[in-house]
Description:
The chain is of the alpha/beta class. The chain is 38% helix and 21% strand. It contains six helices and seven strands. The longest helix is centred in the last third of the chain and has 35 residues, at 160-194. The radius of gyration is 17 Å and the shape is globular.
Amino acid sequence: MLGLLAERGETLAVAESLTGGLVAADITSVPGASRVFRGSVTSYATELKRDVLGVDGTLLAERGAVDPEVALQMATGVRRVLGADWGIATTGVAGPDEQDGQPVGTVFVAVAGPGDSMAFEAGSGGVEAGAGAGVERSGADAGSFARSRKVAALRLNGDRSEIRMESVRSVLELLLEQVLSERAENERAQDTEQNGGF
Length: 198
């Protein structure tokens, strides 16, 4: 995944909550990560999500930190704050106790590129799928050159360590899916342009 971003000249930033820096550690364990990785913000405290990443304070007060929109705003915020092309984020409940009325194992991971469209997906690889899988929503100000943003809702089983490690794997997998999808869309657009718009 880092190789794909490097060949495209794109950069990555990470916002983490329940993973506490594990995503950044995983990325920086790869030789040459510095060509792509801008940095990370571990916003473990809820007020840091608001004050540093720009997550809406009303949203945090009404829904708590474990929420799909919070995850998306974290990804968008870290992308903006650290000046990256792509932002990824994790928020959730690793346990042992519930948080904000959410049970242990509830996790939201998000990816934000430079575009405006958003998709919400419940469940993915190795997790229990909930209702609403694959429901698409379009951003109000989506532009013709928009890259996608996506949030995945996970219901993970296991102990605190297992939930955190699966969250790391899931957010990196979601990023890879989005980068590959965006690349395929760009290739289709180039083919269409070269063929006179047909």
